[in-house]
Design brief:
It contains one helix and eight strands; from the N terminus they run αββββββββ. The protein is of the alpha+beta class and about 150 residues long.
Length: about 150
């Protein structure tokens, strides 16, 4: 009989230790969630990576204006087949159907020879068609490459 009560006592201690370990783990998890959620102010937004929209060479891209962010710059990637020795930066001109013009700096995307990225200020954009012109550095007789951006 004494042996059974000793086994029961060991089992009771084992269960109490298990419950204590679970309580400590739950308390640690609760405190971790509390401190992590309080480390980001509730009114501050976490920055989302910007997605660049790609336009094929001599191509057209149609986007819904409502899908674009309301502020900031809109990144566009232009496919431009050139030699790898071409300049990494150059100017590009965006012209609206109403005749508004915006000159921006375009940069080659690192590690590529055929993708140029530019950013258009969101305040410049409204519904309509835009012509994007960029000068290419190749032996093609047409040195200006043109792309069309449609915002609906």
């Amino acid at each position: 009989m004494k042996r059974d009560s000793a086994t029961n006592a060991e089992g009771l201690v084992g269960h109490r230790l298990l419950w204590a370990a679970c309580l400590v783990a739950a308390l640690g998890l609760t405190l971790g969630v509390f401190f992590f959620s309080n480390s980001i102010p509730p009114n501050e937004q976490v920055a989302q990576p910007r997605v660049a929209h790609r336009i094929p060479e001599h191509g057209r891209l149609s986007l819904a204006l409502a899908d674009l962010p309301s502020t900031g710059a809109i990144p566009l990637e232009l496919m431009l087949t050139e030699s790898p020795d071409a300049r990494d930066t150059r100017s590009a001109r965006i012209v609206s159907a109403e005749g508004k013009r915006l000159d921006v700096l375009a940069r080659r995307v690192a590690g590529t020879s055929s993708v140029i990225q530019l950013e258009i200020d969101r305040n410049f954009l409204s519904k309509g068609l835009y012509l994007i012109q960029i000068e290419a550095e190749d032996d093609h007789p047409l040195h200006l490459r043109r792309y069309v951006l449609e915002l609906r």
